[in-house]
Give the backbone structure.
Amino acid sequence: MRQFILLSFLIFLSHFGYSQTSVGFRAGYATSSYSYRPAANFRAISTESVGKPTFALVVEHFNSKNAGIELNIQWITLGFQQVNGEDEPILVNRTEFEYLKFPLLASFFAGRSGRFQIKMGPHFGYLMKANEVQRQISNPNTPVIPTYGGADDKPNRFMYGLTGGTGVSKLFGKSTISGEVRFSYDFTNPESQDRIFDMNSTNLEFSLAYLFRVRDPKTKK
């Protein structure tokens, strides 16, 4: 897996090696929530959200005046939390999924030194680890989401979906500082043992990024 990531990163850089390219990092906070249907005759049940920090390496390339592409190699934690309603004592189930995620986004911007940007595109990911943080609910009235971090669990490790975002950025010479908000929807879920009928997740990210321009566009003589 590490060799694949490194090879993809180098191919991406070599393909855009002779255009305006910036590299850097992005850090922020991501919240995620899941909804699920225990069986076909159930309506969708929503869970409480889970929030965790997120980090990413970023490569940004622009080969036209107002459009480009951006690749992220991102570490993100998604998860869900379920509580037993208003009963006492309050019992909680909480599961977290640690993903290595690869958003590949088309980027459109307006402005010069101060820019307004819109980004959208697919993302892919691989589940590195599932953690059962709390597991207190044993006899629920409504079926709960099963465990994914146990010895007998076999979660689906691949994810794919769509990501969109908007933000503002400011140029300082070769450096760029930006802030943005992203929303993602996943078409896949960690369930692979047919223990529940359906499950999906969404996540919202708030982040800041610093980029440094490593390749300027060639100028015509």
About this structure: The beta strands are 20-37, 45-46, 50-62, 67-83, 92-111, 114-135, 158-172, 175-186, 198-215. The radius of gyration is 20 Å. Residues 14-18 have pLDDT under 50 and may be disordered.
